[in-house]
Amino acid sequence: MAKMQRVLALYDTPPADGRVICVDEFGPLNLMARKGKAWGPVRPPRRLRATYNRYGGVRHMLAALDLATGKLYYRIRPRKRWREFLGLLKALRTHWPEENLYVVLDNFSPHKHAKIHVWAADNDVELVFLPTYGSWLNWIESEFAALRCFALNGTDHRSHDEQNAAIASYVRWRNARAKPKTNFAPDSPVRKWTNYPAWAA
């Protein structure tokens, strides 16, 4: 319960001395045909490849959602180890050098690496971990659903450069229309629970 209440408190009343950032990984980004909805063509519909290969490997998106502006920041990397995660944190620290950062994140093992904790403690970054099975509390999850719908569904990219360009185009469009994130799940029953399950502790 304490972890959930901490996250909800940050969402409802962001600290005056910094900003709240939701962080997570999205992927793996395969080069594969993805089904999706589109306007029905006059001609016969395009057919999707039945199979695909991974000759080009996969990519992973490490992303951060700034609740104060609603903007999405990201980087795409071949792997998602603690080193890549630390690189994202350093980029966020550089973007807001004078503010404390409250980073909401899940319990993925690279997030808990000892070097991550040491760096965060030395750089005014508080790591706010979600409760177990509480990924729905991470506000960035809804952004991933939108990214999948608008940038990936119905595509069949043949290179990572092509796929990355589609993602970048969507994020630019989205950030140009971003608004501050407020009122997280205001009508959700979780805000009224009195008997919390064990995983919320």
From TrEMBL:
Signal peptide: none
InterPro entries in alphabetical order: RNaseH-like_sf, RNaseH_sf, Tc1-like_DDE_dom, Transpos_IS630-like
Residue ranges occupied by any Tc1-like transposase DDE domain in the UniProt entry: 19-153
Pfam families attached to this UniProt entry: DDE_3 (PF13358)
Protein name in the entry: IS630 family transposase
Taxonomic lineage of the native organism: Bacteria, Bacillati, Actinomycetota, Actinomycetes, Kitasatosporales
